[in-house]
Design brief:
This protein is of the alpha+beta class and 434 residues long. Helices cover 39% and strands 31% of the residues. Helix 9 crosses helix 10.
């Protein structure tokens, strides 16, 4: 709380910094003046802005309600008023306590204000470098002056930054991110750019001759950070990088398309650090997207057919079992397994296909059983992804039991496990087949 002399001194200081300084009683909606400890009520606080009604979301009321400063912008004619309010409770000369607020106002020409807003819209405010909007604006200028073909772009995701977030506070993590960005920016020329897409994803645009060197650098960046309590933490970062030459680019969005296609092609490949965009790569990625887009309907329409590869006992030449193999027939054409199985595996949709095949096997065995034919054990292949599902065994047994098939006639094949996880997660399968 101020006394009236302190309030008067602060008012004079503010007048050297702002275009308008007011002390407002927001309950009365009036400006007040304090002279020699006496409080005088003046005009309505909004008259000075040329308005005939109170401000919507009055900043003075907001500041008193919250006990904090409050900011807003008012647009009147060709001028934008930047208004900052904060509580100013004070004691007058007669001892009365007044709950008022300072209104600190600056005039900003509308054109200047719009330019400032556009500038802020193009910057990642957390670490102070361009964001996606700023990047696209920059690329547009390169296209406009005809120099875009002289550059390469790369989209990259920082490896292991989640560990920073696990051991440091949010603000400390941002400081590490700033240091990371600065290491890269120090290698760039004035016509090159680093932009943040959000999280730990970035895009760099550099002259073509520097691209490979930057890719090498991104594979091994180290940062030391000292916490406020004096502890030093060392961090080591790699990156996955999707890159592209920019010759032939006509619109800014095409740059993002190229580099994200390249990035997605290696995102889940732990053995590959970077990839460059090409039309061949685009074709492969479009095929993968086509598989993902069509899969659910293809499964519902029974476009997948199960075939059985017999298992024959050599001595007796007798069929003792079979392995179920799935094939996809799309519009009368066989889709090779290599064109869809890896994509479904990557996207996690392979689990749905595995259960589909198991059910087709059970349907066939049920038909054999009902017709009096001798049953043999059929093996069905399942992805390792099922081992992440604690209900895997229950789901398998539910399908088999639905058709009344004895468990001994079903064999579940999983890729060789790296540990004992298979038996730990699926004891019901081993018990039921014993």
């Amino acid at each position: 709380m101020f006394n009236y002399m302190g309030l008067e001194d602060m008012t004079e200081q503010f007048r050297t910094m702002f275009d308008i300084v007011k002390i407002v009683d927001p309950v009365l909606g009036k400006e007040v003046a304090v002279e020699n400890g006496e409080v005088k009520v003046l005009e309505c606080c909004y008259d000075i802005l040329g308005k005939n009604a109170k401000c919507m979301n009055c900043p003075c009321i907001k500041s008193l309600e919250t006990g904090k400063h409050y900011e807003k912008y008012e647009s009147i004619g060709n001028t934008v008023y930047e208004i900052t309010s904060f509580p100013a409770e004070f004691t007058a000369k007669n001892g009365e306590v007044h709950k008022c607020a300072f209104d600190l106002i600056n005039f900003i020409p509308r054109d200047e204000f719009v330019t400032t807003i556009k500038s802020h819209m193009m910057v990642d405010l957390t670490i102070g470098i361009p964001n996606l909007t700023g990047l696209l604006e920059y690329i547009g200028k390169l296209i406009g002056n005809g120099s875009i073909g002289n550059y390469d772009a790369m989209f990259f995701n920082i490896h292991n930054f989640k560990f920073v977030n696990n051991i440091l506070t949010y603000d400390q993590g941002n400081s590490v991110m700033v240091n990371y960005a600065n290491q890269i920016i120090e290698t760039l020329e004035s016509d090159e750019m680093l932009a943040r897409m959000g999280g730990d994803n970035f895009v760099a645009v550099v002259r073509r001759g520097k691209a490979e060197k930057l890719i090498e650098m991104l594979g091994d960046i180290s940062i030391s950070y000292t916490t406020p309590d004096g502890r030093t933490k060392d961090f080591f970062f790699g990156a996955k990088i999707g890159a592209s030459h920019l010759d032939g680019v006509k619109v800014p969005g095409e740059v993002m398309h190229r580099i994200t296609v390249a990035f997605q092609s290696i995102k889940n490949n732990k053995d590959v650090q970077s990839a460059y965009f090409s039309m061949e790569l685009l074709g492969r990625e479009m095929k993968k997207q086509e598989v993902i887009r069509r899969f659910d309907k293809a499964l519902a329409d029974h476009e997948f057919t199960v075939y059985y590869q017999p298992k024959v006992e050599v001595n007796s030449n007798k069929i003792i079992g079979a392995e179920a193999l799935v094939r996809w027939f799309r519009q009368g054409r066989l889709v090779p397994p290599g064109d869809f199985v890896p994509t479904l595996e990557k996207e996690g949709k392979i689990c749905g296909l595995d259960y589909y095949v198991l059910e087709e096997v059970c349907i066939m065995l049920k038909k054999w059983q009902d017709s009096g034919r001798t049953l043999v054990c059929i093996s069905s292949n399942f992805s390792r992804k099922h081992l992440d599902d604690p209900d895997f065994a229950k789901k398998v047994l539910a399908i088999v039991d639905k058709y009344g098939i004895e468990h001994k006639y079903i064999e579940i094949e999983l890729p060789r496990a790296r540990s004992s996880a298979t038996t730990e997660l699926c004891p019901a399968l081993w018990t039921s087949s014993a």
